[in-house]
Structure formats: C-alpha cells, structure tokens
C-alpha cells in the first residue's frame, strides 16, 4: 500500500472519503498523532489493530468534535463527568464512561466503558467534522514504539501500512491525553497527562491517582510495553550519574546520547546531547521528538529525570516506561 501525506483541504476531503470507505487515516491532535477509523464500523476499527500490531484486548479512545456527539456513545453522562468535560474539553483529556450499545466491541475490547476525547487541534476537529462520525483512534505508532508528534514520525512507523497521513505539523502538548475514569464512584486518573490531578481538584472533590498496584490493570494498555525506543534507555537521577553512564557506554563502544533540559545540557562538557528546552511545557512538547531522534543517532539513550511535579510527573510516567524502569 502506498502511504500519502497530505495537508489542508485536500487532506480533509481525501481523509473523510477513506473513513467513509472503511479505511484508516492518521491525523494530528494537540497531544500526539492518532490512527483513526469510523468508531461505528467494527471492521474498519479492526484495521487499526492490524496496522499497529496492537493486541485486541487494548481498547481505543473515541474522538468527537462536539458535545452533542457524545450522547450516542455513552449510557448517560454522570454529573462529575459533565463538570470535567465542561472545564477541560476540548483539550488533552479522555473521560471514561459507561458505553452505549452502539459502540462496537472491537473499540472497547469488550469492556462496558468507553473513553471519550474531544481534541482541541483545529485539523483534528475539522477532520472529525468532515467524517461526520466519531473517530476511534489510538496513537499512530507501531505497538510498543514511541508515540508520534509529527507526520514524519507516523510515516516512519506506518509507511506502506496505511493509505493516508494528514499532516498538521508538530503536536503542541507532546504526550498523550490524561485519562480519567468517571464510571466509578471516586474518579480515578488512569494515565497522567497535561491535565494534572491538581487541576481536577478545583472541579471535583476527590480524585484518586492510579497507583499501578492493582492486579487487573484498569486501563488495559498499561500492562503492555510502551514508548520504547529501538535502543536501550536509562533515566539519570543527576548530572554526575548521566556523565558517568555516558562515559561508560562510550568505553563499551556504544554511541550514547543524553536527552535533557537546557540547564542540565549546559553541564555536560561537550558530551552529545539533545536539549528539550527549559520550561515544563517545552519538555513535554519535545520529549517524544527527542527520543525519536536519539534512537536514530545513538546506541544508548540517557534521559534526565525531570522530576515528579505537575506535567513533568506525566512526562516521567512515559520516560520510565521507555527505560523499562532503569535508572543510573
Ligand atoms: O492523546 C491521546 O489520548 C491519543 C490521541 C490520539 O488522542 N490517543 C492515545 O490512544 O493515546 P492509545 O490507544 O495509545 O492509548 C489509550 C489508552 C490505552 O492504554 C487504553 O488501554 C486506554 O487508553 N483505554 C481506552 N479505553 C479505555 C476504557 N474504556 N477503559 C480503560 N482504559 C481505556
Ligand atoms: Mg499509544
């Protein structure tokens, strides 16, 4: 299959035509690129799993362009969910609610809940509107690889596997949406993101943060390997330990690279590095692009520990998985 990359009106028209024909299309959102199909077409949705190599027990998020479209997808909207949606949608948030009968099993992997997301990215919104149907979409990477934040990243993973990539430039947020489960009595954050637990506190009374310690993973995707670059990766707790690990890797014949914030990079005495910027928002926006570049130029990636507070905590949730939990 030939994979086209298109921009603008042309891309939207071609994309909507492919979705209507039961095909899959990659499209930009403010978080990461998604790989979409008509959420009401179970057969089309199966093509997403095939293109990604994704296990079929890992459910997909359903993307809508407006609040009206949510009604057909869920079995009522709980009061708390309504508050959260009013405050944070459109934006980098996915809300889990009880599903309606209309949502095919292939979307929710047999669960009785569905994840709903209303992206703020203008191209995502225009695309969903042009399709005239909700769009089921995971991130547009091959299963286990780093999520894509540009059309080029999608092409590297999906060339020959999907018919179209809609190019909307680089993603602004840079990591996947926060997932909050509103189908239970106490809302629970299943995946941290740019919308943090502190931000929910102003809207909801109590929010549980997922500890990762339950036996049955609540977001089924969490049990799988995730965000893995093609080479070994480790997280450095200090500048000194990053330099030490770098020098050791070099002695072992690996070409190492350090992915870090600007202040950290300034202290590396000429060692090869990728600077992800100074602010929390910069780090979040640039982290996946940095990991994509790092795996191309290096045999070993050392990534700074950016801290546990706010959005950096969400970034570290991903980076720790990239590193398989390894620290230096
Ligand atoms: O920002 C995002 O959320 C991106 C863009 C494309 O919207 N999408 C994304 O999808 O990250 P994906 O499939 O890569 O991650 C979705 C996660 C998976 O871990 C999945 O298990 C979980 O959401 N999930 C989906 N539906 C769920 C449900 N009903 N209950 C619990 N977890 C669910
Ligand atoms: Mg993903």
In short:
With 328 residues, this protein is α/β, with parallel strands linked by helices. It folds into 2 domains: 4-209, DHBP synthase (Alpha-Beta Complex); 232-322, Rossmann fold (3-Layer(aba) Sandwich), CATH 3.40.50. The chain has helices spanning 8-20, 42-52, 79-88, 105-108, 122-131, 151-158, 197-201, 239-251, 262-265, 280-297, 310-322; strands spanning 4-6, 25-27, 34-38, 61-63, 93-98, 113-117, 135-137, 164-166, 178-181, 188-191, 208-209, 232-236, 256-260, 273-275, 300-304.
How does this structure look, described?
- Strand 13 (256-260), helix 9 and strand 14 (273-275) form a beta-alpha-beta unit.
- It contains 11 helices and 15 strands.
- It is 33% helix and 18% strand.
- An 11-stranded mixed sheet has the order 1-8-2-3-7-4-6-5-9-10-11, with helices on both faces.
- 51% of the residues are buried.
- The termini are far apart.
- The chain has 2 domains: 4-209, DHBP synthase, CATH 3.90.870; 232-322, 3-Layer(aba) Sandwich (Rossmann fold).
- The chain has helices spanning 8-20, 42-52, 79-88, 105-108, 122-131, 151-158, 197-201, 239-251, 262-265, 280-297, 310-322, and strands at 4-6, 25-27, 34-38, 61-63, 93-98, 113-117, 135-137, 164-166, 178-181, 188-191, 208-209, 232-236, 256-260, 273-275, 300-304.
- With 328 residues, it is an alpha/beta fold.
- Residues 212-217 have low confidence and may be disordered.
């Amino acid at each position: 299959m030939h994979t086209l990359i298109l921009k603008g009106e042309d891309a939207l028209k071609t994309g909507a035509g492919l979705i209507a024909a039961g095909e899959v299309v990659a499209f930009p959102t403010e978080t990461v690129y998604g790989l979409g199909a008509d959420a009401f077409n179970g057969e089309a949705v199966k093509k997403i799993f095939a293109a990604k190599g994704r296990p079929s027990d890992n459910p997909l998020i359903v993307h809508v362009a407006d609040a009206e479209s949510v009604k057909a997808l869920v079995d009522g909207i709980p009061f708390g969910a309504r508050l959260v949606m009013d405050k944070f949608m459109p934006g980098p948030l996915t809300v889990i609610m009880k599903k309606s009968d209309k949502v095919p099993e292939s979307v929710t992997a047999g669960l009785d809940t569905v994840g709903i997301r209303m992206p703020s990215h203008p191209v995502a919104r225009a695309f969903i509107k042009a399709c005239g149907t909700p769009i089921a979409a995971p991130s547009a990477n091959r299963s286990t690889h780093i999520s894509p934040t540009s059309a080029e990243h999608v092409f590297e993973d999906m060339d020959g596997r999907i018919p179209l990539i809609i190019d909307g430039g680089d993603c602004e947020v840079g990591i996947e949406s926060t997932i909050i489960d509103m189908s239970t009595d106490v809302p629970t954050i299943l995946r941290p993101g740019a919308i943090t637990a502190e931000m929910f506190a102003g809207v909801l009374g109590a929010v549980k943060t997922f500890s990762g310690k339950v036996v049955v993973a609540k977001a089924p995707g969490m049990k799988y390997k995730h965000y893995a670059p093609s080479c070994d990766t480790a997280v450095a707790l200090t500048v000194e330990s990053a330099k030490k690990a770098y020098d050791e890797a070099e002695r072992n014949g690996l070409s190492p690279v350090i992915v870090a914030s600007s202040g950290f990079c300034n202290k590396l005495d000429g060692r090869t590095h990728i600077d992800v910027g100074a602010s929390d928002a910069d780090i979040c926006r640039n982290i996946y692009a940095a990991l994509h570049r790092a795996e191309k130029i290096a045999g070993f990636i050392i990534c700074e520990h950016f801290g546990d507070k706010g959005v950096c905590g969400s970034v570290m949730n991903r980076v720790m998985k990239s590193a398989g939990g390894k620290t230096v």
